[in-house]
């Protein structure tokens, strides 16, 4: 991969590129989503994020198979804004780990946290190696 490809793919994540997606909820739905997490996804802590981007990772088939065996999907998020974080980690932005499951069309569950996707966003696809180099 050359530098132009690298810059093009990172630009997709950090700027307003991508295909609109229908995931996410309104701010007034956040309390209900927190309640859903506490009742159905315990013991996962929650974080509420906005200005987020759904990232589909381009991975070779052998990596995809390994992820599937571990209950993971080659998808992640980058959120420019963390509105609330139950663990109060002090993050202003976040790059998640890989997706375990999507609930209620707005709860992005990873191995460590249930992210509530607040507001609309876009979806992009990038090489998994580029994603690994991004920091949140």
Features:
136 residues; 8-stranded mixed β-sheet
Secondary structure layout plus pairing:
Elements: H1 3-14, E1 19-21, H2 30-40, E2 46-58, H3 61-69, E3 75-85, E4 94-95, E5 101-103, E6 107-109, E7 114-117, E8 121-127, H4 128-133
Parallel strand pairs: 2-7, 2-8
Antiparallel strand pairs: 1-8, 2-3, 3-4, 5-6, 6-7
What does it look like?
28% of the residues lie in helices and 34% in strands. The protein has 136 residues and is α+β, with helices and mostly antiparallel strands. The chain has one domain (3-133). Strands 1, 2, 3, 4, 5, 6, 7 and 8 form an 8-stranded mixed beta sheet that branches. Strand 6 and strand 7 form a beta hairpin. It starts with a helix and ends with a helix. The mean pLDDT is 92.
Helix fraction bin: 25-40%
How does the overall form come out from the CA principal axes? globular
Largest sheet: number of strands, sense, barrel closure: 8 strands, mixed
Distance between the ends: 22 Å
| Overall SS class | alpha+beta
User: How many domain units?
Assistant: 1
Strand content: 25-35%
Number of helices: 4
* Low-confidence spans: none
Mean pLDDT equals: 92
SSE string, helices as H and strands as E: HEHEHEEEEEEH
Number of strands: 8
> What is Rg?
15 Å
């Amino acid at each position: 991969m050359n530098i132009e490809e690298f810059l093009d793919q990172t630009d997709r994540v950090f700027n307003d590129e991508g295909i609109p997606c229908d995931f996410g909820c309104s701010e007034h739905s956040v309390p209900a989503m927190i309640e859903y997490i506490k009742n159905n996804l315990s013991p996962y802590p929650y974080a509420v994020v906005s200005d987020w981007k759904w990232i589909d990772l381009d991975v070779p088939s052998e990596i995809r198979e390994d992820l599937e065996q571990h209950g993971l999907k080659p998808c992640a998020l980058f959120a420019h804004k963390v509105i609330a974080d139950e663990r109060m980690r002090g993050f202003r932005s976040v790059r998640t780990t890989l997706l375990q499951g999507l609930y209620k069309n707005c709860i992005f569950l990873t191995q460590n946290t249930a992210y509530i996707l607040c507001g609309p966003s876009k979806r992009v696809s990038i090489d998994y190696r580029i994603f690994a180099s991004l920091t949140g």
